[in-house]
Amino acid sequence: MNNVKEEFSDLAYIDVKSENPYDLFKEWYKEACLFSTAMPNALCLATVSKDMQVSARHLVLRRIEDDGFVIYTDNRSRKTRELEEVPTAAMCFLWAYLNDKGQRVARQHRIQNCSQSHRVLLREGHADRRQDPVREGRSVMPVDVQENRRLRNYNDMQTQITLFLCFFL
């Protein structure tokens, strides 16, 4: 840890140009995408189980919509189950990079209680955006978890295999 430099530009300074925190996020995200060599779309999502056990994991932001964030997940995943059981979550983005002036920039954007108004959406037509899990050799059990029934065909499975978690502000 002695080799870590702690010279970051304006770590505590935030130039607020809008009263909407979503505008600030979009501004910072755009800058992080421009200057960061890492994954600016990586985020940490924390959920809590019905037994009040906190669980955090890193995910990838797939896109930003006008009123929220979209990530993909398997509808059988732990995070999906926890969001259904306890509809509260927090997301955190961390960006560290050199800006166009050569200054070190470190920023984080935290969104808390984001799933109180979240909607979990199943959308058709998104399967082509992900790699085919069957072609990759991963085992996929074609079961519709919500209705606990066998799916009729591969297209049904493709529709059910991925959830869009949309966190609306």
From TrEMBL:
**What positions does the domain Pyridoxamine 5'-phosphate oxidase N-terminal occupy?**
39-108
Protein's pathway:
Cofactor metabolism; pyridoxal 5'-phosphate salvage; pyridoxal 5'-phosphate from pyridoxamine 5'-phosphate: step 1/1; Cofactor metabolism; pyridoxal 5'-phosphate salvage; pyridoxal 5'-phosphate from pyridoxine 5'-phosphate: step 1/1
What Enzyme Commission number does this protein have? Answer: 1.4.3.5
User: What's an example of a GO molecular-function annotation for this chain?
Assistant: pyridoxamine phosphate oxidase activity
* Broad enzyme group: oxidoreductase
Q: Which family does it belong to?
A: Belongs to the pyridoxamine 5'-phosphate oxidase family.
Q: What the protein does? A: Catalyzes the oxidation of either pyridoxine 5'-phosphate (PNP) or pyridoxamine 5'-phosphate (PMP) into pyridoxal 5'-phosphate (PLP).
| Name recorded for this polypeptide | pyridoxal 5'-phosphate synthase
Gene that this sequence comes from? 100678935
